[in-house]
Design brief:
This protein has two domains: 172 residues, Isopropylmalate Dehydrogenase, CATH 3.40.718; 153 residues, Isopropylmalate Dehydrogenase. It has twelve helices and eleven strands. The relative contact order is 0.17.
Length: 339
């Protein structure tokens, strides 16, 4: 039985969405148990009247909450009784717990994970890797997307390695096509860091490196992994998600603008519903923080129940795929001096 921690406070829809997502995950995955951290009274109110296997659900009282407007280091240091820090300490200290999910402050989660949870041997810095759907029906992982604003060429190579192993081990993508986010497809494009990263990625035989990628090609289906610094990757992901939502909103507005359009939409109702689900980022979970000895998944701050359940499923897949050993094996082949 895999034990997974769920930080139930900090997100926009906490704790209701977290609890609902937890119960959905328990129904979907028969071989996991969940530990919910947060205000016990509030969590019990959310559970009141709900049917679930009480033998697979535990509450750990944590009365404090880390807000997204707080300085990460101060919050980690001072709010020891917060739902996030209680979960981090349990993850660190209990060998029987394999993973943690949080929809709380990204900065605090990264700071806590880096200072409390060990890295896989050889990893310079862990990196976030969210997943998005492609127009060809596949998935693409973007690594990094917020954990490391400043990077070195060797860090970018490691992001490619970690994400490639992740996509292959967790999502079954054979020989993932790895690309480097850049301002052009030519090898000489970009600043010195990206030019050097291109050379390193090209000379890593364990990677199926296919060259630079321009942001407009993210969802085309030609790539399985996009390597990026945390700033650019975060902008890329949020711009893509935001554009999809805005387009859906405009489409709905246009349909209701004329009776003829409404009649046409009625005939295409099923297709529009399918497209809405396809473009809804809530259906694809959160970002795994790759490179840690234990699994940490960061859900969207706006995560609803379906997204929380998907995050728990991601944590489950990470733990049952055992990709840490393969990641370490490849990374340790290459010397680096970024510590």
């Amino acid at each position: 039985m895999l034990k997974v921690l769920l930080d139930c406070f900090g997100g926009d829809h906490s704790p209701e969405a977290n609890v609902e997502g937890a119960l959905a995950a328990l129904d979907r995955l028969s071989d996991i148990s969940l530990i919910l951290t947060g205000d016990e009274a509030a969590l019990k109110r959310c559970l009141d009247g709900r049917r679930y296997d009480a033998g697979r659900l535990e509450i750990v009282h944590a009365p404090e909450v880390i807000g997204c407007d707080e300085k990460p280091i101060d919050a980690v240091r001072l709010k020891k009784d917060s739902s996030m820090m209680k979960a981090i300490r349990l993850l660190r200290d209990d060998e029987g717990i394999g993973a943690m999910v949080s929809t709380g402050s990204t900065g605090a989660l990264v700071a806590a994970a880096l200072t409390r949870i060990g890295r896989i041997r050889g990893v310079i810095r862990p990196a976030f890797c969210p997943i998005l759907p492609t127009m060809s029906g596949g998935l693409v992982g973007i690594c990094d997307s917020g954990a490391n604003v400043e990077v070195s060429p060797e860090m970018l190579r490691q992001f490619g390695i970690m994400a490639s192993v992740y996509m292959e081990g967790v999502y079954g993508v054979s020989q993932p096509r790895v690309s480097l986010l850049n301002v052009g497809k030519e090898a000489e494009k970009g600043d010195e860091i990206h030019q050097q990263a291109h050379i390193l990625l090209s000379n890593t035989p364990e990677l199926n490196f296919v060259g630079n990628m321009e942001s407009r090609d993210l969802l085309g289906g030609s790539y399985d992994v996009v390597v990026a610094d945390g700033f650019s990757g975060n902008v890329l992901v949020k711009t893509t998600e935001g554009t999809a939502l805005q387009l859906l909103g405009k489409l709905k507005k246009d349909i209701y603008s004329r009776t003829l359009y409404k009649l046409g939409a009625l005939l295409m109702k099923k297709m529009f519903a399918d497209e809405k689900e396809f473009m809804n980022y809530q259906n694809y979970g959160g970002s795994v923080l790759l490179g840690l000895e234990k699994t940490v998944v960061k859900g969207h701050g706006s995560a609803k129940a379906v997204s929380v359940a998907k995050c728990i499923e991601q944590a489950y897949r990470m733990e049952t795929s055992s990709i840490a050993a393969r990641t370490e094996e490849i990374i340790m082949k290459y010397e680096h001096y970024d510590y």
